[in-house]
Specification:
homotetramer, 7 helices, globular
Chain lengths: 238, 238, 238, 238
């Protein structure tokens, strides 16, 4: 399976506190544990030519991970549309944390998914599994504790997910649909809420396991392409 | 309840066969039976200034009906975005027949919903209710027979509907998710497949009843607007 | 609309602390605010002949509320089956708090719905609305605060609800799908988690409003009964 | 993966026309192609001691296939309950054709799932995929044609499936949700409508492939068992 990790890669360059946690960028941290898990991984960032998402790269990507925060608007619509068409054709997509407000996620949701509650108070988060036995939760028990995270709270403006995997509890009083699967076209999308840049969430082994499990789950490439458009009566065919 | 019927209103002007069925346009036919049902109805068409969908009209619309076919691209993005924001805020939307390929429907689905199978062979369609007791199917029995319709066939590229109301059977061999409810933001959307311009579908009493029931069901206006954005810890509030 | 409130009515007779909160029983407290809301309300309890749920009472009930806790097994299977058949035929059912472990709820779920986490430590609960604009949440804002409740925690062994309305946050660290709608047959079921006998939850105005809204939402009686069994080819009929 | 095929095995003994199609019983036909696909397969039938479903057999079964028709009532409740508990714990279940009216399927649905329309007129059935890219539909294109089948028609009294995979079209005018996935507890259930005893459906390669794919999809064994019951506050744990 070929994975591309896309990262805005801005905080890590300009904020020393973030740099201390992710010296090579969030994308390299994720790339490392996905590589160790046996996947073939490349990375791409906002400031690469064409955001690193050329036709060749996208055509050669089975699952795309997406982390962005401050500069969603700098991703050209043309690239968003190319990613969208690849999802329709079966490319998996894992949207991370503040990627909920990215152009590609909002486009795939069809809603104002940038809307939710948030707060940076280093709340404890407990992710409760709603899906025992699901491929994404396997081997992870009934909960994952994240000592400190940015708080995201409901209501989150998304369509009802096709599968609700995790609900997040925050010590400040909020809850959030923190792990959600959406089927769109032939593509599968997994949204995973934890992953703020100022806390070492992607260094937590259980979080890494969720993201490894997710790659396998949203992988849906090379599946049958169906015919669309004008069609002769099916009842007369064999 | 205030309803606005939007119609592309093109076939009815230029095609005598269509004009014979809907001399004043499809929108006027629908407006008539919705008015008789007690709703306050206005109409709007593509060639009206601002497509007839000014800020004032949209703000004053509880439920919008949408019929379009050949000229989806002539609806400016700015107007599509205004309709979209009204749906997020609770305006109901009833999308009719080839409106599945409209900009607004595709935007709200987040998928390439213009893709399906189709054929104009005047197939018989039988709409089978999957939702006994649902407000949209009330008083309509377990099926609705449409003597002749354009055939739409699966696969139809939409997200799984929040509620599947009708499955259409076509004599040529196809099936279609012909009645679907989608919740998006605070808005409710009902997609209803029958309604080709060359057959008198909107003159059928059962079809009219579906569309009357639908208005009541997707009506969701004047509901609470929730707070979004930065939020103080809820646990410390009363 | 005719409502029957069924209560086990055991704690309130034998536990002074509970009696102090609900001197006439939980059923009478609920009956009072539903009556004030304009519904026609009767009550029934476990120790009544036939549990108070005779054929006549059930046939004359549009929506049944169910509160039980310690003596689920004392409800005869025959009565459970009668309630079940009425739900199949469109009677609404509102299952309250520990009613999750009742025979009727487990039967309708098809799962071991008596399984969840629980704790009696008077946690604060915050109910977060996941369904803005939904008939059950109308007029209630984005959250309901319950100062003290029994804690229920995920994982709760239920099928994915047809509509997830509220997620509960508990100060001890748990989350729960506290408001869920299930469609079964022609019936609608609303499960609502708060309502422990040792705290005055049913005296809270927002909780009362949820239960009033729920009555209207699950009301589905007098809807069409469909034909089942052997059927002539539909295509040959008009 | 260890599969057990359970068959009522009655028609094949007493009806020469059925015997001609399935000389060793439907279970042996299914066992053969599942064995060829690499699974470890055993069979069990109604007239075996304990219906062939002893504790040992069930504990050693990852996925259970179920075909029954005339003698659902002869399966003792005790065995139904044992199968049910195994599904709660993660055993996969594939319910075939008239197995929709079996005790175990109705129990897992929580509805009167024995209710649907039916007719034995050797209609053509076309199964249309609603789930491109889904593991159950892989390699099968957008449709499967079954020259002759018993007709099943909506309305079928089941809860909305967690995943709708196939809709069946019948030449007589009916439609049916012919391929449905339900999650119950840790178990996954796949209901597949084709498979009448008087037609050679299980000899069709595409049908065999659906049933092979299904085994892989509903396999969910050896997954984490979560804790239930009294629980200390999660927020105080690490």
């Amino acid at each position: 399976m070929k994975i591309t990790i896309w990262n805005e890669f801005d905080h890590e360059k300009h904020d020393d506190a973030v740099k201390a946690i992710y010296p090579d960028g969030i994308h390299m941290c994720i790339a490392r544990f996905l590589t160790e898990a046996g996947f073939e991984v490349r990375t791409a960032t906002l400031d690469d030519p064409e955001c690193g998402l050329t036709d060749e790269v996208l055509a050669d990507t089975d699952v795309l991970y997406w982390w962005g925060h401050l500069r969603h608007d700098n991703v050209p619509d043309e690239i968003v549309n190319k990613v969208y068409r690849r999802v329709m054709d079966g490319m998996g997509l894992v949207v991370l944390h503040s990627g909920h407000a990215s152009k590609i996620f909002c486009k795939l949701m069809g809603t104002a998914a940038d809307n939710l509650k948030w707060r940076e108070t280093n709340d404890k988060e407990i992710l409760w599994s709603i899906a025992p036995g699901h491929p994404i939760t396997r081997g992870l028990g009934d909960r994952i504790v994240i000592p400190h995270e940015e708080t995201y709270g409901e209501h989150f403006i998304i369509p009802a997910p096709d599968e609700l995997i995790y609900i997040g509890w925050f010590s400040g009083g909020e809850v959030f649909r923190s792990g959600c699967v959406f089927n769109r076209g032939r593509g599968k999308i997994f949204y995973f809420q934890p992953g703020h840049e100022t806390v070492p969430t992607y260094h937590i082994p259980e979080v890494q396991k969720v993201l490894i499990n997710a790659a396998n789950y949203v992988y849906n490439n090379d599946t049958d392409k169906y015919p669309y458009g004008w069609a002769a009566p099916a009842a007369q065919q064999n």
